[in-house]
Design brief:
The chain is mainly beta and 120 residues long. 0% of the residues lie in helices and 51% in strands.
Amino acid sequence: QLQLVESGGGLVQPGGSLRLSCAASGFTLDYYDIGWFRQAPGKEREGVSCISSSGGSTNYADSVKGRFTISRDNAKNTVYLQMNSLKPEDTAVYYCAAEYRCGSHLYDYWGQGTQVTVSS
């Protein structure tokens, strides 16, 4: 089965950290740029970060710059999102997607999402 599976979400206090993983099953991530997105209740989905297929290029939403870091390990067929200094407004369901090119809005695969809750 061809799919992306996110993991690593959970409940964390403000200022804490989480690392999300996005693992591919049934296909290789090597040829895809990978984006992380999030959707909070009552809000539209927003792009958080994206990494090129080689890992040589990354971009971030202004709201997470300096706090989140995207990386990938193609040997493990996995992309990561390290989230530090988490804020309550980071609470959302986080999704990863295999994208033709970052910003192309051409997606081949989406994960099912992982919940991140930042609360004291």
